[in-house]
Amino acid sequence: MDFSYLKSKRILLVDDEQALLDLVVSILQNDGYQSVTTAKNVKNAIQTAKEIQPELAILDVCLPDGNGFDLYEMLMRTGDYPVLFLTARGEEEDKFRGFDLGADDYVVKPFLSKELLFRITAILRRTYKEERPLVRLKNSAIDFSRAEVIKDGEHIPLTAKEHDLLSALYRNAGRIVTIDALCEAAWGDNPFGYENSLMAHIRRIREKIETNPSQPVSLVTVKGLGYKLILEK
Amino acid sequence: MRSVPKLIRRFVGLLLLSFVLLIVVNIVIIAIIASGQMENARPWSTAEQIAAALSQTENGYILSDEGATELTAASAWAILIDNDTKTVVWHSDDLPDSVPMNYTLSDISSLTRGYIDGYPTFTSGTETGLVVLGYPKTSFWKHMWPSWDYWLIAHAPQIALVVLIVNVFVILLIYVIANAKVLRSVKPITNGIQALPSGEPVYIRETGLLSEVATHINSTSEVLQAQKRELKKRETARANWIAGVSHDIRTPLSMVMGYADQLQIAPDLSEEQRHKAGIILKQSERMRDLINDLNLVSKLEYNMQPISVKQENAVAVVRQVAVDFINTDIDGKYPIEWLTEETLSVCMVSADRDLLKRAVSNLIQNCINHNENGCTIYVSVAQEQNNCVICVEDNGIGASDEQIVKLNTAPHYMVCDTNTTEQRHGLGLLIVKQIAAAHNGTTAIEHSRFGGFAVKITLPSK
Q: Which of A13, A202, B57, B179 has the lowest tally of Cβ within 10 angstroms?
């Protein structure tokens, strides 16, 4: 999936340690992010935010002149953009406080560069959506914006449940999605007893996307665990 | 406390036993005294003997020698009052002067019941008159009105029984009143002693009969509370210390990991240098995991980890963890087989979802860590009676019998209260055990049926 359009987003990075700022900046720049601005304290961060109008903020919690939670609230008074906390405070209550405020993600140091980049991409992707492209499968294509499958030139509509299930599978394309997670995606928070319905829906989806539904190649079963959507490269 | 009513019952029992014994002893004493009083009937028989020993002759009445001896032995005097004249027709030699010689019927009636001039008298009739024996003044006491109400005598047994019952009742009443105060003092004391092992603070009012005991219990409770506070303080300090150290180490470790990660893929470095950077990154990750584990272990150990228990489907939670591992196992070195029965889609447990996921992750990660050359990992969830059994096993190198026993029984160094150089292995299994225990469950480490290592977590199922 191509998310290069996200690399131009303006990112504000706040941490009191210069060495860590340098590290994260280099991680982001190496991945192609072109607009990363740093600040070392709350005062500086507010000033910088006014100047650059960030599209994503990465905040440390422990700052010399205040804390990241208060900074978050101050920033949100003048702007509306996603925030990721990047902090050494790994206690549950700190995490809950961060999420409770409305943070989009909370990463505890030490972190892997790749993990941080994945999380940043995920936040930006969710916040700044590009029109969804056509998802290409081996024998068909899915157009999520129109809720239809295109197979052999024919446009086959998807039901709401089929759309929900395919969306959940597409978000994790190439990875197994558990039966429980799929039931939850389609039937909400209390998804017990829907396993048979799920199988029926999967069968109907296969009839729409596969050439031979009894020998699926795009939507495969992983016995006992779940299903996997395989995209055409 | 159950021993208090037992104590009271024992006291009352003893009291009743004392009554019975007292009555028996009294009866025996009365019988002994009464048997000694048999002599008291003798004056009447002596009078009869004297009457018999008197014989009438032409010269008047004569007392036989035996009669005279008997009279002397009894130190008594005797007179014979004539039936017709009511005058004394014979008397013994030692008759006191104050004894009248003429009697009226009224006098005779009086002397029969009582005395003549203070001498206790005893009578016996003869054909011609009445023999009266007079004993020394201080030898006998005579009951002058020897008559009883007939009803009293007829109902004597019942009356005796009623008197006995009333006596018992009165004494019990006295006992209860006297002991009520003691019992009132004992109750808070026993409650206090009972509450001491619970670890809650105990305070008993220091008044009443047992105030001294109450004071001692109060001071014992204060000592226990002080010890508990001190222990809690130490535990908190230790957990905070671990939390503080792990916090401070995170930022420098971020730098190590970040730059090692960049060096690992830097194109201008040699293959060997990139490989070394990769090792630094891998070992840094181990340090990060160890810090996280250390922090969690210390918090679970000192009950400082907030546990938010909800009804969770263990099948879904374990399946998600298994799938997360499958999705990240790119080179397929550690395939995971899902062995849960297809019919079991729900197995509800009261659990903290994140902690449960952590426990299962640790078990799967353990299989990976201990089998560098790869292995198949088998994951299953089963419902056994009222329990939900989560099993993670592998076909890897496994462990010896001795190691299995040690893992099941020996405490980990983190929670061992004696000096130990053993058990210096990772914290993964300890966390699993702690999480199972925090959910009222158990952990069993066994040999796997597939040849490797197996760990079963058993949690109560709802």
A: B57
Q: Is the pLDDT of residue B1 over 60?
A: no
Contact A110 B257 (CB under 8 A): yes
- Distance CA(A157)–CA(A118), nearest Å, equals 32
CA distances from B101 to B62, B91, B97, B98, B322 (A): 18, 9, 10, 9, 136
Domain ranges of chain B: 1-147, 148-189+196-305, 310-460
Q: Tally DSSP H helices, then E strands, for chain B.
A: 12, 14
All residues of chain A having their beta carbon less than 8 Å from the beta carbon of residue B285 are 112
Which residues of chain A make contact with B306, given a CB cutoff of 8 A? 92-93
- Where does B332-376 show beta strands of DSSP type E? 336-338, 348-351
- Alpha-carbon gap, residue A194 to B316, rounded angstroms: 13
CA–CA gap between residue B76 and residue B124 (Å, rounded): 14
Mutate to test the interface with A, among B245, B246, B251 (most CBs of A within 10 A): B251
Pick the CATH number of B310-460 from 3.10.450.50, 2.40.30.30, 3.30.565.10, 3.30.930.10: 3.30.565.10
Distance of CA B429 to the CA centre of its chain: 41
Check CB contact under 8 Å for A226 and B319: yes
Please report residues of A whose CB lies closer than 8 A to that of B261.
Answer: 27, 112-114
A62 and A151 assigned to the same domain:
no
Q: Provide the number of structural domains found in chain A.
A: 2
Nearest chain B Cα distance for residue A17, angstroms:
9
Please identify which residue in the block is written with the tokens 């025996």.
Answer: B28
B345/A179 CB distance under 8 A: yes
**Can you tell me the distance from the alpha carbon of B278 to that of B160, in angstroms, rounded to the nearest whole number?**
107
Which domain, by its residues, includes A180?
A: 135-229
The residue behind tokens 């199972």 is B436
Domain boundary at A127, A155, A178, which? Answer: A127
pLDDT tens per residue across span B209-250: 778 888 999 999 999 999 989 988 888 888 888 888 888 888
Whole-number average pLDDT of chain B: 87
Q: Which residues contact B129 (CB under 8 A, 6 or more apart)?
A: B80, B81, B82, B83, B89
Highest mean pLDDT among A208-212, B37-41, B406-410: A208-212
Which of A66, A76, A63 is closest to A102 using CA atoms?
A76
pLDDT of residue A78: 84
Judgement on whether residues A163 and A189 belong to the same structural domain of the protein: yes
- Suggest the residue from B254, B329, B379 to mutate for an interface test with chain A (most A CBs closer than 10 A): B254
Pair A115, A40 in one domain: yes
Burial of A126 (0-12, 13-18, 19+ CB in 10 A): exposed
